[in-house]
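User: Quick sanity check before I run a bigger batch. Here is a single chain. Can you write out its predicted 3D structure?
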Amino acid sequence: MINKQNLWFLTLFSLILVLSVYYITMPSELLLTNNSNYETTGGSSDAPTDTVNVEESDLLTAMRVSLDEERLNLQNTLRETLTSTEASTEDKNQAYEQLKHLNEVKGKEEALEKKLKENFKLDNFVKIDGNEIQVVVVSQEHNNELANNIMRAIQEEYEEKVFITVKFEK
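Assistant: Done. Predicted structure follows.
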């Protein structure tokens, strides 16, 4: 017999399960916020406006946009495969695994960029392609010691050996 306590547990567990599946399958575009169009209302128009200028290399921005567009196109293709009625179950499973892998790679790239930013105080761009990692760093100094330290910091995150290239830009 199912008593009240077990019924409540099953109800709450199924609710959590449904919400987590919904969150996982939700498009990542909905999770990102774009505050560039955000306007405050209700304040005084005479109040001074403080602006913060955050500058980043145009090269890094262009590289990020290019990589994001490439991955977005791949994600759209994989999502079409997932929703296709003509695709086999195996194809859908492969598409799902590739989507999952893309999200993991994106997370690793962001984590490595954050780590390099914190450790070396340098603007950077990280691209992971299989076991190859490309790092572009905006720095005035171009020395081997800094490049080796960056490579060591990245290699610490991986158990297996990865091929790391560091490119300096001004």
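The beta strands are 123-129, 132-138, 163-169.

User: Great, the batch can go ahead then.
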